[in-house]
Each structure stands twice: as structure tokens, then as C-alpha cells.
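Read as amino acids, C-alpha cells; as here:

___
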Amino acid sequence: MALNLRKLRLSSFVLVGIIFASAIISATSVDVGSIVTPEFFDGIKNQAAPDCPGKSFYTRDVFLNVLDQYPEFGQTGSDDDSKREIAAFFAHVTHETGSLCKIEEDNKEVYCNDPNYACIPGKSYYGRGPIQLTGNGNYKTAGDALQFDGLNSPEKVAQDPVLSFRTALWYWKTNVHSVVNNGFGATIKAINPTECGGGNAPEVQSRIQYYKEYCTKFGVDPGQNLSC
């Protein structure tokens, strides 16, 4: 009887622990779709010129569908932490694409800058997609992760909206997500370190301004360490 009582107490303790853990998880879980509303997403696009190619290429529905493959996005820490991550992502996207206008970078350089991967003659690895994936190394590793030939077919990132958002969220997960809680400045360094340390102060300020604007929209303080 005493053994059964101990088992009952242990079972009750485990059950309470599970319930408590579940309560914590649900308390810190943000529905990204309720933050990235149609009004928010379209509001970014409306800042761009009417004839921008990105207006029909980038859609909220595609973003949310692709997001299902990256469940950790906007789900770390408190609700405010989650909102700051979403604000940070879209601040960089807005800056990189000119308010979801550009699918491809204006500067069509080859960007064969990683000696670990052989570049394909005739192919260029300039910025494409929401985060403007750049460089042969990034195209190679993104291709390996997402099962497309990034070195031979980098142009696919600018042709397929689903793949385009997949590369952006893959890059974010791989290089940015882990530093989000270090402040927005850490995310700038993770995306374009050459801008930091006075490398390109106007670009840094542009990113910060978008971030602060979106934090205000989401009703959250932007936090500390905004610059890099």
C-alpha cells in the first residue's frame, strides 16, 4: 500500500510538472500570423512603387506557409521577445528589398567570394529573395539544406516565391535566430557585418529605423544594443 501511495505521489508530481511546463510554453507562444497581419504585410509593400516586381512575388500566404517549416521562428522567450524577432526579420527584409519591391539585387556582381566552393561559369551569386541571399558559399549551403542546386541554379531563388522565402528563413534560422536576444545590432552583424563598426552607418540606421517602427506597431520595446 505504501509503495502504491509513493507511485501515486510520483505520478501526481510528474503530471503537475507536465501541466506547469505546458502552461509556460503556451504563455510564451506567439501566433506569428496574428502579428504579421495582412495589413502589416501589405503596408510594407504599399511603401514601394506600384510597378515593383516584388508586389506580386512576395505574399503573406507564402510566408506563413513556409513558416510551418521553421517552427522556432518567433517562438523563443517571452511574448515580447517573439515580437522583437518578428520585427527584426521584417526590418531586414524591408531594408534589403526596398519594402518588398526588389526580388534581385541591383548590383549584379558575381560574388564568388568563398574559395571552398567552385563557382559555375556564367552564374552570379548576387542578392536574391527577402534577405537577399548573397555569395557562392551561401547559395551552396542553402541549396544543400533546401535540396536545390544553389551553385548551378542560383536564379531559382528569384523565380520561385516559396524557395525565396525558404532561403530567407533558412538563413535566419542558421545565422540570426540564435543572436536575436543579444539586441538588434547583433542581427545586423549576422546579416551584413561590413556595415558595422562605421562601415556603412546610413545602412545601419535604415535597418534600425524599420526595426523601431515595427516594434512600435507590435506594442513592444525595441530593447538595448540596437546598433553594431
Summary: The mean pLDDT is 90. The two ends are 64 Å apart (CA to CA). Residues 108 and 126 are 6 Å apart (CA to CA). The chain has ten helices and no strands.
